Amino acid sequence: MGIVKAPGRAPRIQFSHFGINVRDLDRMEDFYTRVVGFTVTDHGSVESLGISLVFMSMDPMEHHQFVICTGDPDQLGSNKAGAFFGGPINQL
């Protein structure tokens, strides 16, 4: 077996449309903007479920690459086992 060499440059990996559920929206917004470097592009809510969202991006051409969403899966009723609100990751 031959030796595999690393490429001369880092691969271009794009981070896009990833969402997670969080318990402390303000703390996570602070972390992802201050530490990771995202910019908040929008805020939203799903009032019928009591959910708040923060949309963020590092790309000025993308409304959001990353979204954080409040909501305790244990308090979301029968849909809590669904793919969207069933755990910490709600979209990828």
Task: Give the helix/strand layout.
Elements: E1 18-21, H1 25-36, E2 39-46, E3 51-57, E4 66-69, E5 89-91
Structure explained in plain terms:
- This protein has 92 residues and is an alpha+beta fold.
- 13% of the residues lie in helices and 28% in strands.
- It has one helix at residues 25-36, and strands spanning 18-21, 39-46, 51-57, 66-69, 89-91.
- Strands 2-3-4-1-5 form a five-stranded mixed beta sheet, with helices on one face.
- Strand 3 (51-57) and strand 4 (66-69) form a beta hairpin.
Helix-strand topology string: EHEEEE
Radius of gyration based on Cα positions? 17 Å
For the sheet with most strands, the description reads: 5 strands, mixed
Strand arrangement, major sheet: 2-3-4-1-5
Give the strand tally: 5
Given the C-alpha coordinates, what overall shape results?
elongated
**What number is the mean pLDDT?**
78
Strand content: 25-35%
Summarize this, please?
The chain has about 90 residues and is α+β, with helices and mostly antiparallel strands. The chain has one helix at about 25-35, and strands at about 20, 40-45, 50-55, 65-70, 90.
Keywords:
92 residues; alpha+beta; five-stranded mixed β-sheet
